[in-house]
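The following record pairs a protein chain with its ligand, flavin-adenine dinucleotide.
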Amino acid sequence: MSEAAKPAARPAARGGRNTELPEHLKCYKGVWVFVEHDRGHVNPVSWELMGEARKLADKLGVEVSGVVMGGPDETLDAFAKEAYAYGADHCYIMRDPVLKGYRNEPFTKGLTDLVNKYQPEILLLGATTMGRDLAGSVATTLGTGLTADCTELNIDGRALAATRPTFGGSLLCTIMTLAYRPQMATVRPRVMRMPRRDDTRTGDIIEMALGMVETDIVTKLLSFIPDAERNTINLAYADIIVSGGKGLKNADNFKLVWELARVLGAEVGATRAAVQAGWAENERQVGQTGKTVRPRLYIAAGISGAIQHRVGMEGADVIVAINTDPNAPIFDFAHYGIVGNAMQVLPVLTQAFRTHLE
Ligand code: FAD
């Protein structure tokens, strides 16, 4: 259903294929963001998407809506208020006991019912575990196009131009859903900037009932077991990250990354090569198949700067690279470069910061 093209082509340019938006879909208007929340907290990716939704909607001259679904005893109105602060004009709220705790069936029904009734032209979700699961089933149920893991969203004509890496990250492609509505996309946390919050903004609430009972749902939520490791590693939203790569040579040397991170109060990141070598947990991988990060400071030690790593960290405010090879690709986009042996440079930095910070 989605049409891949770079440069983006308009409907008329597709030889022989019917890409004109059917008349009955032209009434689809507005940009929606699914507001993902869990245990009383909204996933910040929803607000990052709200900022993008605002930009897209302003280009289209339409309004932005948040979709908040959950149990009757959850603070859904407070989430709606936050949604306004981050750029929404309206919020669609669906409350039902069966929506307490995410399950695919009731959330898919709820979101598809809302879409069928209120007809948005664009629907955005976070590329999180929940967002990926929900987006796929909603797109399939609605019979529309979904572009996953986008790195850029734009408007071309009236169509959503959703850009994402392809061919192992070596190319970017722009995908448009030309003949179906809504146009759906998921975006990973931290790919988009967090918009400025404006608590003076307000909006209105549209409530809709789900119309499902517990016995309609096959999946049962028995208990919640937090993943201790996942909950302690907060790479995506860390302010400072010290990352290590294959240039560190072995697990013992990788401890130098930990030591600097400890002194700076930073998180530890790693390249895929370092993770595959067993020097760091999967959760610490930065890059195309790992986490996207946007820290204030990213220190890269023994990292070549391959494109698949770069796409995950180039949004950092300041990148400092330590590499023995003056021609390493990372020096092409690092703000500060230290040509040197990381096993010597890291302890010097650790000692210097320790003297100043402790
Ligand atoms: P290398 O490329 O081996 O670089 C090591 C660097 O260390 C070199 O530049 C070298 O000059 C330097 N060095 C050597 N000795 C020292 C020293 N003593 N001190 C300082 N520097 C030294 N990679 C990711 O990181 N994240 C991803 O999400 C990811 N996803 C991928 C997805 C796909 C589909 C594919 C095909 C690849 C992916 N990769 C990913 C792998 C990526 O292509 C690179 O192979 C990887 O990033 C390289 O890791 P590295 O920089 O640690 O190792």
